[in-house]
Amino acid sequence: ETGVTQSPTHLIKTRGQQVTLRCSSQSGHNTVSWYQQALGQGPQFIFQYYREEENGRGNFPPRFSGLQFPNYSSELNVNALELDDSALYLCASSLRNTGELFFGEGSRLTVL
Amino acid sequence: QQPVQSPQAVILREGEDAVINCSSSKALYSVHWYRQKHGEAPVFLMILLKGGEQKGHEKISASFNEKKQQSSLYLTASQLSYSGTYFCGTDAEILRSGAGSYQLTFGKGTKLSVIP
C-alpha cells in the first residue's frame, strides 16, 4: 500500500469520447506525475505537477491535460480518445527533491 | 530515448543469482529501479545518482557506470517473491526541468520468474 489511490480502476470508452481520471496523493506529497503503460511496456511519462502547475511534459499531444488541486490531488483528462489510448494510467506521488515515486494501482482504460 | 534493458526475460530457480542491465544513449543524472508484479503498481527499489555509490537493499544491489551510461541490478540468492518485471528508469541531464523533479524514461522491462 503506497497511500496513492486512483479512480476509476477500470473504464471503457468509445473513440472520440473524453475521460477524466483521478488520483489522491500520499499525505504530504507535493508532486504528482502521470504515466501511461501500454500492455507489455514500461511506463511512459505524460506530465508532472508541482504546486498546481505543470512542471514538465513528455511526448504527448495537447489533448492530454491535467490539473493539480490545493490538496495535491490530481486529474488527468484525455479528449478525443483514440484506440491507441487504451492503456493503464499510473499516477505517482512524490516529495520534490526526493527520488522515490509512490505509484497507485492505476486506471485501466479501454477505448473501443 | 528509451533505455535498453537486457535480458528481456529470465527464469531462475530459488537461490540462484541474476543480473539485469540497463543502458542509455544519453548522459544520465540518475538511474531508478522498480519492480512490478502482475496487476500491481510498480514499487521503488533504489535510486543511483551520478557520482553516488553502489546501493544495496537486502539481497538486491545495483551499480551505475557513469562513463558508459549503464546500470546493473544484482539479485542474489533469489526468492520466489522476487518474481516480477523489473524496470529501470532514467533521468537524463538534458531533460531535467529543475532540481528534484524526476521525470523518468523507463525501459521495456525484464521479466524475472523464480521457480521452486
From N to C, what is the helix and strand string of chain A? EEEEEEEEEEE
Q: Outline of chain B, from the CA principal axes?
A: globular
Largest chain-chain contact?
A: A-B, 29 and 26 residues
Gyration radius of chain A, in Å: 13 Å
Number of helices of chain A: 0
* Average predicted local confidence, pLDDT of chain B: 89
Strand content of chain B: over 45%
Question: Would you identify the regions of chain A where 5 or more consecutive residues have pLDDT less than 50?
Answer: none
Mean pLDDT of chain A: 93
Assembly state of the chains shown: heterodimer
- Helix content, binned percent of chain B: under 10%
State the end-to-end CA separation of chain A: 31 Å
Low-confidence stretches of chain B: none
The share of residues in helices of chain A is: under 10%
**Main sheet overview of chain B:** 6 strands, mixed
How many runs of DSSP E, i.e. beta strands of chain B? 11
The profile of the biggest β sheet of chain A is: 7 strands, mixed
End-to-end C-alpha gap of chain B: 37 Å
Number of helices of chain B: 0
Describe the structure.
The complex is a heterodimer of chains A (112) and B (116). Chain A has 112 residues and is an all-beta fold. Chain A has strands at residues 5-7, 10-13, 19-24, 31-37, 44-50, 53-57, 64-68, 74-78, 87-94, 102-103, 107-111. The N and C termini of chain A lie far apart (31 Å). In chain A, 38% of the residues are buried. Chain B has 116 residues and is an all-beta fold. In chain B, 0% of the residues lie in helices and 53% in strands. Chain B has no helices and eleven strands. Chain B has strands at residues 4-6, 9-13, 18-23, 28-36, 43-49, 55-57, 60-65, 70-75, 84-92, 105-106, 110-115. Chain A binds chain B through residues 2, 4, 31, 33, 35, 40-45, 48, 50, 55-56, 58, 90, 94, 96-106, and chain B through 2, 30, 32, 34, 40-44, 47, 49, 87, 89, 97-109.
